[in-house]
Amino acid sequence: MGQVLNGKMVAQAVKDEVAAMVGSLDYQPGLATVLVGDDPASHSYVKGKRRDAEEVGINSIHHEVDASVTQEELIELVETLNADDSVDGILVQLPLPGDLDGEVTVETIDPAKDVDGLHPFSLGKLMLGRPGLRPCTPSGVLRILDHYGIETAGARAVIVGRSFLVGRPLAMMLSERGADSTVSVAHSRTEDLPSVTREADILIAAAGSPGLIGAEHVRPGATVIDVGVNRTDAGLVGDVDFDAVVDIAGAITPVPGGVGPMTRAMLLVNTLRAAKARRAAP
User: Fold this and answer.
1) Which residues pair with 223 in a beta bridge?
2) What is the pLDDT of residues 17-27, one digit of tens each?
3) End-to-end CA distance of the chain
4) What local confidence, expressed as pLDDT, does residue 103 receive?
5) Fewer CB within 10 Å, N side or C side of the chain?
6) Helices 7-23 & 136-147, crossing angle to 10 degrees?
């Protein structure tokens, strides 16, 4: 049976580190969350993020907005938070309801406060290999690999999924200097997907398709990272058929309890980084 990589444990270690660093500051970083509408899943996600912030000493500044808000009103709120010096990070919970445009809203965020790492400016710095705020989920994946001593340098990594939230930025981050993986990005239209994924030393499933990755997709001994979060009648499941893969993989993340907690933990890391960078600026 492969080693189960405990994301909750790693996330707690990250939170402990952030709490210690926040405690050493002579100011309190602030994280502003914006929640639009009444989607239960979004409420649950934001509640967890706020609780995490408070636990590590980051000031949680929360705005709940009715789903009837106009795009102009939402942009005005973001611009107010941009100008608020007590706010170091801004997170707009996506997806937005109705006809509200998530991309336009995210692009309104001051890149210096883009703690989700999804602003085009942030992604552009990633593409150029320049330091900056990185997307939280890919950062969490790398932190899990690092925590468990799973070598990325020289490893062949295959990512199934090409979204701008996970797949594409993670491909860049795994191939950056320091990570030094050889990366392939596959997707739902990849021909003979199992033959591609079986080449992987590190296989990352981020396609949003329940149980997409089965035993036939995994090379014996490979590390399997499941980024999928799919709500089904049977509960929360990943993109990997855990029971079918766990005895083949050398290491594997579960769902829940794998990458999910790391996404939230890396949001705290980004908020601290944003606070230190903003306050160090001349």
Assistant:
1) 202, 251
2) 999 999 999 99
3) 54
4) 94
5) C
6) 100
Please tell me the distance from the alpha carbon of residue 96 to that of residue 104, in angstroms, as a whole number: 11
DSSP label at residue 179: T
- Domain regions of the chain by residue span: 26-110, 136-259
- The CA distance from 209 to 82, in Å, is 36
Q: Do domains 26-110 and 136-259 have the same CATH topology?
A: yes
Distance, in Å, from the CA atom of 11 to the CA atom of 56, rounded to the nearest integer, reads 12
Confidence band of 152 (pLDDT split at 50, 70, 90): very high
Q: What tokens were used for 218?
A: 């995994």
- Indicate which residues carry an active-site annotation: 49, 93, 116
Q: How confident is the model at residue 281 (pLDDT cuts 50, 70, 90)?
A: low
pLDDT at 246 over 90: yes
Cβ count near 195 (within 10 Å): 11
Tell me the per-residue pLDDT of 155-193, one tens digit each, with 9 for 90 and over: 999 999 999 899 999 999 999 989 999 999 999 889 999
Q: Is there a contact between 245 and 219 (Cβ–Cβ < 8 Å)? A: no
For 136-259, CATH number out of 3.40.50.720, 3.40.1130.10, 3.30.365.10, 3.30.413.10 equals 3.40.50.720
Nearest 5°: the CA angle 174, 178, 180 is 50
Residue 235, Cα to own-chain centre: how many angstroms? 21
CA torsion through residues 166, 169, 171, 177, sign: negative
